[in-house]
Amino acid sequence: MKKVLLCLALLSLSALPLMANSLIQIGNPPDSGSGNCFPFGCAYNAEYQQVYGASDFSSIQSPIQIMSLELYNTQYNSGATQTDAGTFTITLSYTTKGINDLDPTFANNFGNNPTQVFSGSINQAWNFPGTLHISFTTPFTYDPTQGNLLIDVVGTNVSTPGGSIYYDVNSTGGYFTRLYCPGGLSCSTGTVQTGYGWVTGLDYTSVPEPGTLVMLGTGLLGVVGVIRRRIL
Fold first, then answer.
1. What pLDDT band is residue 19 in, cutting at 50, 70 and 90?
2. 18-204: which CATH topology?
């Protein structure tokens, strides 16, 4: 009897609604016929940051877990045959800095809960047009009501075995701002380019509210109780 109840409980838990991945794209439409290779498309051995305003996420219900990053190469065909080789380390965090006041010193832009979400290679075959998809090993929980979002990227031993790739950018919508090291050479204080950055795709899942989880748990206990009474 206990085994039957346990199996029913496990089946009920497996039926709880898992949140399907969704995609938010920030920065469309891209600048026509152009792109930029920093930091994932050039021999960029330095730090790079891009800040997003919380208002960029107004179309979603917060909080969310960000699962992966996407960049797009649809506007400029450089003839590249591979993505960059080397190691990229990506960290996400909240930040009090905004699109119009990003600090030129990289370390000053980090806020609460900086989380390393990826460290490894992105090298793969490439054809134009293409999408660079980087799956995170550690998701980042983000609530737009708590602040802006900062993406920090550090490239190490990076080279371009198949040529440079120029990913789509936006320079007119005011969605984001970037901080970069000119020439792709390591620096602690870089150049701020306000209102400019990659068109960004973020795969995410919604985080259930605590009240929803309590309701699901209570409902599950009720179902198990009814089944147990009927069996007895």
1. low
2. Jelly Rolls (2.60.120)
pLDDT tens, residue by residue, 181-205: 999 999 999 999 999 999 999 999 9
Distances 62 to 7, 34, 46, 72, 135 between C-alpha atoms, Å: 34, 33, 32, 25, 21
The rounded distance, in Å, linking the Cα atoms of 41 and 32 is 18
**How far is the C-alpha of 10 from the C-alpha of 220, rounded, in Å?**
10
How far apart are alpha carbons 22 and 96 in whole angstroms? 26
Whole-model pTM? 0.84
Q: Which one-letter amino acid corresponds to residue 22?
A: S
Residue in the structure block whose two tokens are 């793969």? 124
The helix (H) or strand (E) run that includes residue 88 is strand 85-95
- The domains of the chain are located at 18-204
At 1, the amino acid letter reads M
pLDDT recorded at residue 62: 87
CA dist 136 → 54, 71, 86, 115, 156 (Å): 21, 14, 17, 11, 18
CA dihedral (156, 160, 166, 167) positive or negative? negative
Q: How many residues does the chain have?
A: 232
